């Protein structure tokens, strides 16, 4: 963020010495001209535990931005994105929303992946009355814990993902499931929703193994996996996930092992052909967006990959070792196009129209497949501020993730838990 | 004469901060509100570390005790901001008392590690009781919990005034303590524990009092941060938030009354400014720390006091 | 799985943790014992060791064993050199004042972490083990490399012990530890001893990391846990006592695994943490240190 403007330059007075002088130097300012670009703030994990996601979120957003501007921008105005690091920390996240909105004068702010940053930032977005569009896949939006200014139009939430997966797992892999998940909110969402969804399928979760968030080695938890387990369901996040998969491989070796189903979150930005991961051969993964181009990919898939700079294996075109966070990063692309659609429907002209923008977003429903939504068609639920879409199940074949099933949008539906449209702005 | 100068300086700071809300652009006003609350936390840390010489690495525990002590009551039982703040203050003090009773049996590096361990256990406890505490995701406080005597603290004006009120109270308390007999005994304990003991002071009692005072400040700051900004989360209990007040204090000047505020202010804007210029801002924060400790080891105000203003409290 | 094998697995895992921990804690203990410096950047030296191992093994083609051996030599040397530079440029000028060195090493921590993030990136990258060998026990499989780690760490610790007790360098270091002023009076170049100690301490952390990195990928935030655990081990073991450090590493490594068999893992972590705190409260000189 190199430039900034304030809303009320007339209130800026000459400041006295000392600390105030330092504040002034931290605040280069100019006043935006008429017809200035639409500014979108982007809270980004550049540092901290989420940093590997941040890089790809930035690249994908830049690619979408380029396409939007080539197509005439939003309402005929050019668009720019201001990225600011949130250090994957809720306190800093909230400060970044402030900085982007108040100091930089952004029209809307896009939010990031990690749930605690989103939840920590949402109150300030609500107070500033700035639309806060998150790309987090957490259930926090649709559960009703946030506010009317927070929306998730670009990616389905974890509850929907799990509800859509469970029937296929129960029907194809087995009925007796052991779950391994991190012992914090993201893992607990998996534990609760999957256990419930499995019971509805006539299946059963026979063991739940929670791993503390500070753990770096996992072998000693594996003996807790019951011998009659038919399916091992794993979802791990963070830098230790490779260790997890390798140690699981060492534990089972070439002997008998259950079917294994995991969330790709365990291996985002990791090459599935990495030495030590041979053990994953034949196992299944949830994927939001297929990393390896499926044989029957949609007509826009190739153009999307080219725009973002990703090859058919899901790695960077300039470095085959730089594997993308393909299952999540489409959310920034689709969120930007949702902002464009919302602003155009609202006839958005400036920050005074922010409420109109939110109302226009809430009025959206069917969002068809297209260049705007390369992952697939979506349906936005205006009441819960959450988008719904299709999910993919892939199998590792020859070290590559090959899609074997795609769910329907109905598979991931669940009853509304909140009606944000009834809340005050 | 000196007393008058000292009071004038501190009251002028409070007056300047009061005026700042009308003079500064809105962005910096909210930042100042944050900084003032963090400064209260740092002042609490300073009482233990700067004055009494207790190098703790576990103050995040006291901050989090206040944050959750107030926040959970408002989230689950619908308490409003005032009782929540008082509950947070009490929680911070009690936590510090409990930790102090055990940890003060140790000194030096052992004390550092014991406080660190207690804080780590506290952090894990927050995660363990996830259904109640919101775990790592945290909680958004309801509107009722953010209302103080009818004013909504989610509005910028009242929030700034409450932050300023808390900050001023803490600053003047700190000044009072520093200039009191207790303050001098605390410093004596830091400088030479054996000698203070021979003068008839029980080191354990003095240190415990200092730590509880420190916990009260930290707890109040934690509760205030939750109530004023609407979010309560486990990340505030991580070791990072034990290191932050230490950095503020060392930067501003350990054992000075205004130092913690100055340190918090400079650190906040150093990060804010550097992160706008480069994504590698942590490097500059690190470099700033090293430079500071090499060339101004007593912190900014400590150096000023040593060279020019000997009367600075 | 029945209780016996379960316990066996927990103990084997505990041994690996303990071995690596003992090595990195020995480095911290040396620095702490000889120089009285609390090196908060110790974990970052560890992380640097792992990251350098990744660079070395990617650059040397062919047999992973050769690349690994190269990493075992290069990583500690580079990290040691960096530590020596940090000592000469920063710590020495602070006159090893305890509080100032804590701040300085926190600054160093941030700088190293950010430099690695910028140059190496945020991803966790794997390093191939020098050999692939899986042991199949009747109840479960186990990585042969992990057993090698235990043996290698034991050998290295033995070497450190020999260095400290059987060589002139060790004698000089011990003399400096006991009394800096007297050592100087006897013509010992204390500055050089400090620089060497700091480099050696950092090098040991880097060695520990090179050993562990084929098990746990190189990542720029991996230094946090080892720092914390090493501190605990050093304190519990008693200041400057190498034998105490080793025993404490065994206790911490094994107890962590065994306690988590009986309680939910997060609760086990809480209990283990409190246990360590209580040991320190009631035996502040550590389990094996002499009462000061």
Plain-language structure description:
- The complex is a heterotrimer of chains A (425), B (313) and C (292).
- Chain A is α/β, with parallel strands linked by helices and 425 residues long.
- Chain A has helices at 19-25, 51-70, 90-103, 115-128, 158-172, 185-200, 241-252, 301-308, 326-346, 354-362; strands spanning 38-44, 79-85, 108-110, 132-133, 150-151, 176-182, 204-211, 231-234, 259-263, 284-287, 315-316, 319-323, 366-367, 378-381, 386-389, 392-397, 400-406.
- In chain A, helix 7 (241-252) links the parallel strand 8 (231-234) and strand 9.
- In chain A, helix 3 runs parallel beside helix 4 (115-128) and helix 9 (326-346) crosses helix 10 (354-362).
- Chain A starts with 18 loop residues before the first helix and ends in a 19-residue tail after the last strand.
- The longest helix of chain B is centred in the last third of the chain and has 27 residues, at 203-229.
- By secondary structure, chain B is an all-alpha fold.
- In chain B, the strands form two sheets. A two-stranded antiparallel sheet of chain B has the order 1-4. A two-stranded antiparallel ribbon of chain B has the order 2-3.
- In chain B, strand 2 and strand 3 form a beta hairpin.
- In chain B, helix 3 (59-77) runs antiparallel to helix 4 and helix 4 runs antiparallel to helix 10.
- Chain B has one domain (2-238).
- Chain C is mainly α and 292 residues long.
- Chain C has one domain.
- In chain C, 75% of the residues lie in helices and 2% in strands.
- Chain C is built from eleven helices and two strands; from the N terminus they run H-H-H-H-E-E-H-H-H-H-H-H-H.
- Chain C has helices at residues 3-35, 42-59, 64-91, 98-120, 144-166, 168-178, 180-185, 190-212, 224-237, 242-262, 265-282; strands at residues 134-136, 141-143.
- Chain C has a two-stranded antiparallel sheet with strand order 1-2.
- In chain C, a hairpin with a 4-residue loop joins strand 1 and strand 2 (141-143).
- The longest helix of chain C has 33 residues, at 3-35.
- Chain C is globular, with a radius of gyration of 19 Å.
- In chain C, 56% of the residues are buried.
- Chains in contact: A-B, A-C, B-C.
- Chains A and B meet through helix 1, helix 3 and helix 4 of A and helix 1, helix 2, strand 1 and helix 12 of B.
């Amino acid at each position: 963020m190199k430039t900034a403007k304030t809303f009320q330059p007339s209130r800026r007075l000459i400041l006295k010495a000392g600390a105030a002088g330092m504040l002034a130097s931290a605040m280069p300012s100019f006043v935006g001209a008429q017809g200035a670009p639409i500014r979108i703030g982007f809270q980004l994990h550049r540092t901290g535990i989420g940093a590997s996601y941040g890089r790809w979120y930035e690249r994908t957003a830049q690619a979408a931005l380029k396409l939007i501007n080539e197509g005439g921008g939003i309402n005929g105005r050019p668009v720019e994105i201001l990225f600011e690091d949130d250090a994957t920390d809720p306190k800093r996240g909230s400060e970044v929303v402030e900085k982007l909105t108040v100091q930089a004068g952004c029209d809307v702010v896009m939010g990031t992946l990690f749930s605690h940053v989103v939840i920590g930032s949402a109150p300030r977005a609500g107070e500033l009355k700035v639309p806060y569009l998150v790309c987090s896949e957490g259930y926090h939006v649709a559960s009703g814990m946030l506010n009317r200014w927070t929306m998730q139009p670009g990616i389905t939430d974890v509850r929907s993902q799990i509800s859509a997966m469970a029937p296929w797992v129960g029907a194809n892999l087995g009925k007796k499931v052991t779950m391994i998940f991190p012992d914090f909110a993201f893992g607990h969402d998996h534990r609760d929703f999957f256990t419930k969804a499995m019971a509805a399928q006539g299946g059963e979760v026979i063991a739940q193994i929670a791993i503390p968030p500070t753990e770096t080695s996992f072998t000693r938890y594996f003996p807790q996996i019951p011998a009659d387990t038919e399916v091992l369901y794993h979802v791990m996040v963070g830098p230790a996930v490779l260790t997890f998969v390798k140690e699981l491989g060492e534990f089972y070796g070439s002997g008998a092992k259950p079917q294994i189903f995991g969330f790709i979150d365990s291996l985002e930005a990791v090459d599935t052909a990495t030495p030590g991961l041979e053990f994953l051969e034949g196992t299944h993964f949830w994927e939001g967006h297929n990393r390896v181009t499926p044989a029957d990919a949609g007509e826009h898939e190739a153009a999307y990959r080219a725009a973002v700079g990703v090859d058919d294996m899901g790695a960077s075109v300039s470095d085959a070792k730089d594997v993308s966070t393909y299952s999540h990063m489409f959310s920034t692309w689709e969120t930007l196009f949702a902002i464009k659609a919302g602003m155009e429907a609202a006839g958005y002209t400036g920050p005074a129209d922010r409420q109109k923008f939110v109302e226009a977003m809430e009025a959206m429903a069917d969002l068809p497949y297209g260049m705007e939504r390369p992952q697939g068609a979506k349906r936005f639920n205006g009441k819960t501020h959450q988008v719904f879409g299709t999910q993919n199940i892939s199998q590792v074949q020859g070290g590559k993730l090959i899609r074997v099933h795609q769910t329907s949008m109905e598979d991931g539906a669940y009853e509304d838990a909140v009606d944000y449209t009834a809340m005050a702005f | 004469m000196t007393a008058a100068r000292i009071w004038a300086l501190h009251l002028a700071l409070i007056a300047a901060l009061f005026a700042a809300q009308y003079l500064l652009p809105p962005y910096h006003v909210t930042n100042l509100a944050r900084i003032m609350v963090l400064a209260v936390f740092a002042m609490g840390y300073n009482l233990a570390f700067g004055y009494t010489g207790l190098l703790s690495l576990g103050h995040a525990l006291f901050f989090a005790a206040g944050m959750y002590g107030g926040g959970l009551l408002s989230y689950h039982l619908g308490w409003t901001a005032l009782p929540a703040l008082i509950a947070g203050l009490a929680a911070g003090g009690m936590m510090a008392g409990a930790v102090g009773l055990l940890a003060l049996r140790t000194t030096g590096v052992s004390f550092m590690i014991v406080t660190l361990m207690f804080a780590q256990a506290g952090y894990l406890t927050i995660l363990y009781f996830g259904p109640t505490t919101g775990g790592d995701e945290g909680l958004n406080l309801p509107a009722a919990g953010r209302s103080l005597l009818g004013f909504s603290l989610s509005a910028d004006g009242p929030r700034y005034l409450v932050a300023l009120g808390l900050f001023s109270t803490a600053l003047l308390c700190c000044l009072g303590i520093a200039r009191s007999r207790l303050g001098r005994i605390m410093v004596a304990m830091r400088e030479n524990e054996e000698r203070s003991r021979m003068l008839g002071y029980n080191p354990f009692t003095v240190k415990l009092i200092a730590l509880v005072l420190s916990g009260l400040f930290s707890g109040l700051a934690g509760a205030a941060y939750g109530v004023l900004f609407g979010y309560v989360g486990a990340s505030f209990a991580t070791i990072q938030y034990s290191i932050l007040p230490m950095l503020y204090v060392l930067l501003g000047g350990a054992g000075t009354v205004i130092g913690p505020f100055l340190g918090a202010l400079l650190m906040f804007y150093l990060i804010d400014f550097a992160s706008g210029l480069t994504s590698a801002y942590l490097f500059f924060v690190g470099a700033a720390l090293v430079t500071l400790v090499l060339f101004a080891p007593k912190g900014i105000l400590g150096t000023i006091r040593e060279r020019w203003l000997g009367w600075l409290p | 799985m029945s209780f016996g094998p379960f316990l066996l697995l927990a103990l084997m895992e505990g041994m690996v943790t303990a071995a690596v921990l003992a090595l990195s804690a020995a480095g911290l203990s040396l620095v702490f014992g000889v120089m009285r410096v609390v090196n908060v950047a110790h974990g970052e030296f560890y992380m640097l060791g792992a990251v350098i191992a990744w660079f070395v093994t990617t650059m040397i083609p062919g047999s992973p064993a050769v690349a690994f051996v190269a990493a075992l030599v290069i990583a500690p040397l580079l990290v040691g050199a960096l530590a020596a530079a940090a000592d000469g440029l920063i710590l020495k000028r602070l006159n090893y004042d305890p509080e100032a060195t804590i701040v300085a090493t926190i600054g160093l921590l941030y700088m190293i972490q950010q430099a690695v993030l910028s140059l190496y990136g945020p991803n966790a990258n794997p390093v191939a083990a020098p050999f692939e060998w899986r042991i199949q026990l009747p109840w479960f499989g186990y990585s042969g490399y992990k057993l090698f780690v235990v043996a290698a760490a034991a050998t290295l610790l033995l070497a450190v012990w020999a260095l400290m007790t059987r060589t002139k360098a060790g004698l000089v270091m011990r003399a400096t530890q006991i009394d800096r002023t007297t050592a100087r009076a006897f013509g010992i170049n204390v500055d050089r001893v400090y620089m060497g100690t700091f480099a050696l301490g950092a090098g040991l952390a880097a060695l520990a990391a090179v050993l562990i990195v084929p098990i746990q990928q190189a990542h720029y935030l991996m230094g946090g846990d080892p720092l914390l655990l090493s501190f605990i081990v050093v304190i519990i073991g008693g200041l400057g006592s190498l034998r105490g450090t080793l025993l404490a590493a065994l206790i911490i490594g094994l107890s962590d695994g065994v306690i988590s068999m009986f309680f939910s893992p997060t609760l086990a972590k809480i209990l283990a943490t409190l246990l360590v705190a209580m040991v320190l409260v009631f035996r502040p000189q550590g389990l094996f240190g002499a009462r000061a």
